[in-house]
Amino acid sequence: MKQMLANSYLFGTNTPYIEALYDAYLSNPASVEPAWRDYFDKLGTLPGAGNYTGPDVAHYPVITSFAQRAKDGTLQASAHATTQSDAKQVKVLQLINAYRFLGNRWAQLDPLKRSERPAIPELEPSHYGFTEADLGQVFQTGSFAAVPDNATLREILEACRQTFCGTIGAEFMYLSDVGQKRWLQSKLEPLRATPAYSPEEKKRFLVQLTHAETLERYLHTKYVGQKRFSLEGGEALILAMDQLIRTAGTVGVQEMVIGMAHRGRLNVLVNTLGKQPSMLFDEFEGKKKQALSAGDVKYHMGYSSDVGTPGGPVHLTLAFNPSHLEIVNPVVAGSVYACQVRRGPEGKLQALPVLIHGDAAVAGQGVNQEMLNFSQTRGYGTGGTVHIVVNNQIGFTTSDLRDYRSSLYCTDIFKMVEAPIFHVNGDDPEAVALVTQIAMEFRQEFKKDVVIDIICFRKLGHNEQDEPMVTQPLMYKTIAQHPGTRKLYADKLAAQGVLGPNDADQMIKDYRAALDEGRHLIDPVISDYHSKFSIDWTPFIDVPYTEKCDTTVSKTELQRMSKRLTDIPANFTLHSRVQKIIDDRKAMGEGKLPVDWGMGENLAYATLVAAGYNIRVSGEDVGRGTFFHRHAALHDQNREKWDVGTYWPLQHIQENQGRFMCFDSVLSEEAVLAFEYGFATAAPNEMVVWEAQFGDFANGAQVVIDQFLSSGEAKWGRGCGLVLLLPHGYEGQGPEHSSARLERYMQLSAEFNWEVCVPSNAAQIYHLLRRQMLRKQRKPLIVMTPKSLLRHKDATSSIDELANGTFQTIIGETEKVDAKKVTRMITCAGKIYFDLLAARREKKIDNVVLVRVEQLYPFDDRKLADEMKKYPNLKELIWCQEEPLNQGAWYAKHHRLSELIKKGQTLNVVARPASASPAVGYAAKHTLQQKEVVNAALGIKE
C-alpha cells in the first residue's frame, strides 16, 4: 500500500475529490467506501481537523489533516484509491467544480447575442482526458445535487451545462464560508437553475413586463422629446422589483429603502411604488404645485408608499438622488441603519436597503468601494444590501470594453465582500424572478450583500434626445431587430398554452386605458396602513428659522454630569495622559478649573442624552478625537477586547437616558458623510455628528455637501440636522491641514439652508450643540472647530457660563476699554482672534476693539450694528481673516458689512495674499504671514 502522498491526485487542485467524498459521508456515511468511511469516522482524532459534526463543517482542516498525515507517513491510501477508475472519478469532480467556478463564462446571458463564447478548456471533458467512450460510464457526483449520487458522465455534463451555463450565470464559489456555498448550491442545483412557475405566476410576470414597456411607450408618444431616461430594454427590472418585494414581505421585511439613479426611475415610481400616473403626467406638463424654492427634475424625485405582499405590508421609500448616480447608495444605507436602530434587535431583518445600479457606474464610481468597505462594520453594517444592476452593456456612451472597465464583469467589485453574484439574461423573466427570490432569501439568511446583474440593453439613447447610432451603429442595428422582452415572453406563454391568442394584446390595451385616465390598472398601494416605526416630521416642517433657544442647564445638574463623565469603573486602567484629562475634567466640574473645549462638548452630549435625545458621533478617530481632546471612548491599558476594554462614559449618565453611539469610521469621507446624511434624514429626533480628521478632508465628500446637505431642502424638501465638525485654523501645518475651505460653505449659504459657525470657547460649543437639538428646526450645522485652541487658556469658560449662558452669534469686546478712544473695530472669526488679542495686549493698544463673529451664516448684522454704536468715534471697520484674500469669509461677508458703514466710516479687509493653495507649506513663511496679518489689522508698524 503506497502512502497517500504518492497519490498526487489527492492534493492541490484535486482536493475536490476528498471534499466531495466528505460531503457524501456527512449526508450518508453508507454512501462512501468502507475505507474512506473509517477515515472520516476518526476525523475527531486527526491533527488540525477538530471535532466537526453536521453538514456545514469547515473542510479546510480535513484536507490539511490528510495532507499532513500523508507527509508524516501515518496515513495509508485505501486500496480503491490507486485504480484507474478512481483517477477518473477525481477528474469528474474536478469537472463539476470547474463548472461551478467558470460555467458563468459560457452562460447565455446576452439578449443581443453579440459575444462569442470564450474558450475555456476546463469546461471541456477532453481537458480531463475523457473521450466519447467515457460518457456512458457511471461516477459518484459528490455534493452536486443536479443529478443522483451516481450518474453517467453524459448526465453530469448535461446537468452542469443546464445549471451553470443557461440564462443564469452564478458566481459564488469564492465565498470562504462553506455553509453559504452549500446553501446557494441547494437553491440552484436541484432545479438546474430552471424554475417551474405556475401559469398564474407566469401571467404575473408578463403583467409586470407589459406595464413596464407600455408606460415607456406611452410617455414616448405623449411627451415627445422630453427626457425621461427610458427603461426600454431593461423592463425586467420591474419584474425583479415586484418579485423582490413579494419575497421580502414573506421573509420578514417590513421596510425597504431603494436607491437608484435616473435610468428607469419613472417606471419604478409608477409600477413599483404605485405613484399615480396622473401625478407623473402633471410633472411632465409643468402643473405640479411649486412648493419648493428650487425643486428638481422629475427623474431625481423620491417617493414613499405602503404596498401589500403575501407576507404583509411593506413600506417602500425611493430616495431622492441627484445625477451623481451612485452617491445615493451610502445615503440609503445610512437611512436604513437609522430605521434598524429604531426597530431594535430585529431591525436588520425588518429594514432592507435595495440599490439599483447602472453597469458603468457601479464599476466606475469609487463611492461603491467605500460603501462596501464599511458594509460589515458595526457602526455602518445594515445586515446586507440587495444590489440590482441594470446592465445595458453600454454604460452611458461607451461600448468598447477596453474603455468601459478593467474587470471581466462590472460586478467584480462586490467580490471584495464575498457577495454572491447572479448574472441573468433579462430576456428570461422566470430566471430573473428565480435569482431575485434566491438573493432575497440569502440576504435574510446570512445578513450580507448579494447582487443581481440583469444583463439587458438600452433601446434608446442615453436620453430621449440622444442618437446612439452615431457611436454604436452595429449594436443598435441589433437592438432595432429585437422584438422586446415582453413580446418574447408573451409568445412563449402563448406557445405553452398559458395565454389565449389575444390575451397579451389585451393586457396592453387595458393598461393604456388606465394610463389615459391617469390611474393604475392594479394599485399596489395600501392607503390606510401606518407603521408604529414611522417618523413624524410634522413638528419640524415649516418652522420659521430662529436663533433663540433656552440652552441653560442648572449648575448642580452640570456638576452631576461632570461626575458621571469622570466616574471610571474600578480596575479600568487608563493611559497616564488620559488619566490626567479625566482628573482635570473632574476639577472642571467642581469649579476648580475652567472648562475646556473637550469638556464643554462632552457636557453638551451628556445633558442631551439625559434629556432623552439619542446621539451618534462618527468619523475617523472620533472616539479619542484627532487632537486628543474628546475621549468619549476610553481604552483599558490592560485589555484589548472591544466589549470589555472600551468604556463610553456618555452611555452611563443615568438610567433611562438617550442612546449614545460613537464609531471610529473607516478611512473614507464621501461614503461615510453620505451615510450620516442618510441617517440624519431618517432620525430627526437624534443628533448626528460627523467630524473630519482635518477640515479640508471634507473635500473628498464635496458632492455630498453640494448636492445633499446644502440644497436637499430647497430641491426635495428634505430636512436634515446633521452636524459637521471641521477642524480649521492656520498653524503652520501646510496646505492640507489648515483650511476647512470655509469659503465653499459660505458660497453655498442661502435661504437659511444651514448654519455656519466658528465658536471660540467651551461655552459656545456647549450651547451651540444643545441649540441644534432643542430647536424645532432641522438644518445642517457646519462648525469650524479649533485645533490649538482646544487647550488655549483664553478659549476656556467657567461652568457658570455653561449653566447660565446662551450661544452668542457675535461676541463683542470682552476687555475693559474707553469707548471714546476706539477708532477701529476688527471683526474676525476663529483662531485669529486670539493672535490679535495677544498682540494688542503686548503692544498696549487702546484704540482698537475686537469683535468675534461666531455665526457667519445666517449673519446677525443687527447685533454687529449694536456693537458699532457703542463707539461714537469709530472710523474704521476691518474684517480680518487668516485665510488668503480669495478664500475664507470675506467675499461672502463684505456686502453685509458694507451695509453697516455710516458716513465717515470705512470698511477694509486684512488677509493673506490671494493664493492658489489654501496655505503655505513652509513654517517660516507661515509665521511671517501670520505676523503681517496681525500687525496690519492692529496698525502695528515694524
From TrEMBL:
Q: Which stretch is the leader sequence?
A: none
* InterPro entries per UniProt: 2-oxogl_dehyd_N, 2oxoglutarate_DH_E1, DH_E1, KGD_C_sf, ODO-1/KGD_C, THDP-binding, Transketolase-like_Pyr-bd
Q: What is its EC number?
A: 1.2.4.2
Query: Keywords for this entry?
Result: Oxidoreductase, Thiamine pyrophosphate
- GO CC term (a single one): oxoglutarate dehydrogenase complex
Give the protein's cofactors.
Answer: thiamine diphosphate
An example of a GO molecular function for this protein is: thiamine pyrophosphate binding
Q: Top enzyme class of this protein? A: oxidoreductase
Domain called Transketolase-like pyrimidine-binding: residue spans = 595-792
GO annotation, biological process: tricarboxylic acid cycle
Protein origin, superkingdom = Bacteria
The job of this chain, per UniProt, is described as:
E1 component of the 2-oxoglutarate dehydrogenase (OGDH) complex which catalyzes the decarboxylation of 2-oxoglutarate, the first step in the conversion of 2-oxoglutarate to succinyl-CoA and CO(2).
Give the family, as the similarity comment puts it. Belongs to the alpha-ketoglutarate dehydrogenase family.
Q: Which protein, by its recorded name, is this? A: 2-oxoglutarate dehydrogenase E1 component
Organism of derivation? Sulfuritalea hydrogenivorans sk43H
